[in-house]
């Protein structure tokens, strides 16, 4: 069985603990993964891919994200969130007008420095592991996009935002960067993911809800795995051509039916007789596989 289940993660549990708990449940899950880590202290949407859906995790990780975040002014924490140690303080009082002005003028695209306590790997080791062992990881700024940022609430020293950002944006760093423009310090005290691409927290289930489900209920509430790639165009193959293709034989471009002239190296959702079987791309007149989701021995 394959698909996607949307989880409303609670605090104090890691993303990997969520997937482990689901795999150990009596749902017959063989393989499992997720489409973007949530810190243990964060809550909200975790896109979990099960069965061969886990092969599509890279596409979900690449989705833009929406968060609701509360920043606390006047303190800097080593982890940029409430879990860390206080490393600096600032007694500057900030007004609502000042925050509104910074938000209005904040760049829509900039190079963001990730937190030292992050899962980014340098020399094959996660940055947070290096920090915990007394080493300082060498991290580089990364380009991020801030599509929208709204101030929801303000009561000094806390301010609450809703932000829509590109994949790879660290909200902890964003709050620190906003504080820097205000001439003060800040850390994230609460963080909740509301959306990942077209997936919404409104369609997610808590682990406590899922604990009450039987096998049939679980699978009836999963989404089709192709929803992870629904923004990609479609290419159709005949059953015979698709069988040869998943066995490793490249096909001439003319073997695939597409709505428009194929674009070189553009990824396509590959279907055979209405069945989603793979992600593939065209190169030099040939259709090549990127991710195959159906084995050759599964053809009738």
Write the layout of secondary structure elements.
Elements: E1 3-9, H1 15-24, E2 32-34, E3 43-50, H2 57-61, E4 65-73, E5 75-77, E6 86-89, H3 96-105, E7 109-112, E8 121-122, E9 125-126, H4 127-132, E10 142-155, E11 158-165, H5 171-182, E12 186-196, E13 199-200, H6 207-210, H7 215-220, E14 234-237, H8 239-246, E15 251-252, E16 257-258, E17 267-272, E18 275-283, E19 286-292
Parallel strand pairs: 3-12, 14-17
Antiparallel strand pairs: 1-3, 2-3, 4-11, 4-12, 5-6, 7-10, 8-9, 10-11, 12-13, 14-16, 15-19, 17-18, 18-19
Provide structural commentary.
By secondary structure, the protein is an alpha+beta fold. It has three domains: 3-63 and 198-227, Pseudouridine synthase (2-Layer Sandwich); 65-196, 2-Layer Sandwich (Pseudouridine synthase); 232-298, Roll (Archaeosine Trna-guanine Transglycosylase, Chain: A, domain 4). It has eight helices and 19 strands. The chain has helices at residues 15-24, 57-61, 96-105, 127-132, 171-182, 207-210, 215-220, 239-246, and strands at 3-9, 32-34, 43-50, 65-73, 75-77, 86-89, 109-112, 121-122, 125-126, 142-155, 158-165, 186-196, 199-200, 234-237, 251-252, 257-258, 267-272, 275-283, 286-292. The strands form four sheets. Strands 1, 2, 3, 4, 7, 10, 11, 12 and 13 form a nine-stranded mixed β-sheet that branches. A six-stranded mixed β-sheet has the order 15-19-18-17-14-16. Strand 12 (186-196) and strand 13 form a beta hairpin. It is globular.
């Amino acid at each position: 069985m394959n698909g996607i289940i949307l989880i409303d993660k609670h605090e104090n549990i890691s993303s990997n603990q969520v997937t482990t708990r689901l795999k150990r449940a009596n749902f017959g899950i063989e393989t499992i993964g997720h489409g973007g880590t949530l810190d243990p202290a964060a809550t909200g949407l975790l896109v979990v891919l099960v069965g061969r859906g886990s092969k599509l995790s890279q596409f979900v990780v690449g989705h833009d994200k929406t968060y609701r975040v509360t920043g606390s002014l006047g303190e800097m924490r080593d982890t940029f969130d409430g879990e860390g140690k206080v490393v600096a303080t600032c007694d500057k009082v900030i007004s609502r007008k000042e925050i509104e002005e910074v938000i209005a003028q904040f760049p829509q695209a900039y190079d963001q420095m990730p937190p030292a306590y992050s899962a980014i790997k340098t020399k094959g080791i996660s940055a947070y592991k290096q920090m915990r062992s007394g080493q300082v990881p060498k991290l580089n700024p990364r380009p991020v996009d801030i599509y929208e940022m709204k101030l929801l609430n303000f009561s000094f020293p806390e301010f609450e935002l809703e932000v829509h950002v590109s994949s790879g944006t660290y909200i902890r760093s964003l709050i620190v960067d906003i504080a820097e423009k205000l001439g003060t310090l800040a850390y994230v005290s609460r963080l909740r993911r509301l959306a990942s691409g077209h997936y919404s927290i409104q369609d997610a289930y808590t682990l406590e809800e899922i604990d009450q489900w039987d096998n049939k209920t679980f699978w009836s509430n999963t989404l089709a795995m192709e929803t992870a790639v629904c923004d990609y165009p479609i290419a159709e193959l005949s059953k015979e051509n698709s069988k040869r293709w998943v066995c490793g034989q490249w096909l001439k471009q003319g073997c695939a039916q597409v709505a428009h002239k194929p674009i070189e190296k553009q990824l396509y959702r590959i279907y055979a007789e209405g069945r989603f079987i793979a992600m593939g791309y065209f190169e030099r007149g040939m259709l090549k596989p990127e991710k195959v989701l159906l084995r050759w021995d599964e053809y009738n």
